[in-house]
Design goal:
Low-confidence stretches: 1-32
Radius of gyration: 30 Å
Number of domains: 2
Largest sheet: 5 strands, antiparallel
Oligomer: single chain
Order of helices and strands: HEEEEEEEEEHH
Number of helices: 3
Helix content: 40-55%
Structural class: alpha+beta
Shape: elongated
Length: 239
């Protein structure tokens, strides 16, 4: 009889432990934000869609939340952030533009929002990939919502990023050639200006060299412009 009670007790203990673990797991899952981890440009959530309201929470005291979206054409974008925390704590947001080799914050998109308040703005953006970043951490559990508008201006097309990256080396190479050509032309002009006592034939040769270098610069500039236009086209987002 005692052995049966001991076995039943052990069974009950195991059941309680399993239930406790499940409850703990559920609590952890409910505590985590719906888009975590999205704490950097690399792990950003997206692509998000214009006309949809997104919500989130700060998981840690230094949490930042990143969301990304694509604009396929020149857009007058409207954006709105709401601090749904009923406390005297602030939340801020900014929009960042992903460039071929970097990211840069978009001027005029920073919002600072007190608890229970909303703030909004508008900005004209070129085609490309952008990030909506929620920041100003410091208090765990701060909650927010945000949206971008008008509906229909964003794209969910992903593969363009590969073409965009592939087009960038040509721009770098063309820029290098153009820079060197301009430097050679500048040096040739300086040498001619300094050679006031050169013989006429030397001056003719120098002017001929300058003319050649001018053509080189013009050709290099045209190549750079073409490469830059190709990169812009590759980095534009189709629907």
């Amino acid at each position: 009889m005692l052995l049966r009670q001991s076995g039943a007790a052990r069974t009950m203990a195991i059941c309680l432990a399993v239930i406790g673990a499940l409850l703990a797991s559920a609590a952890t899952a409910s505590a985590a934000g719906p888009f975590e981890p999205n704490d950097s440009f690399i792990t950003a959530t997206g692509p998000i869609v214009a006309g949809t309201t997104y919500s989130g929470a700060y998981e840690t005291s230094n949490d930042y939340d990143y969301f990304y979206f694509y604009l396929p054409q020149l857009t007058q974008l409207q954006f709105r952030t709401t601090n749904t925390t009923p406390k005297e704590v602030g939340i801020c947001s900014s929009i960042y533009h992903q460039l071929p080799s970097d990211t840069d914050d978009v001027s005029g998109t920073y919002l600072s929002v007190d608890g229970g308040q909303s703030a909004s703005g508008a900005v004209t953006l070129e085609p490309g990939k952008y990030y909506y970043v929620l920041g100003c951490p410091g208090t765990v559990g701060k909650t927010y919502t945000f949206s971008i508008n008008p509906p229909g201006v964003t794209s969910t097309y992903e593969p363009f990023a590969l073409a965009c990256a592939a087009a960038h080396p040509a721009v770098v190479s063309a820029a290098d050639v153009l820079t060197k050509a301009k430097a050679k032309l500048k040096l040739a002009k300086e040498r001619l200006a300094a050679g006031r006592r050169w013989r006429a034939k030397h001056k003719r040769r120098a002017r001929a060299k300058i003319a050649q270098l001018r053509e080189l610069v013009e050709g290099s500039q045209a190549n750079y412009n073409a490469a830059a236009a190709g990169e812009k086209a590759a980095c534009s987002v189709p629907q």
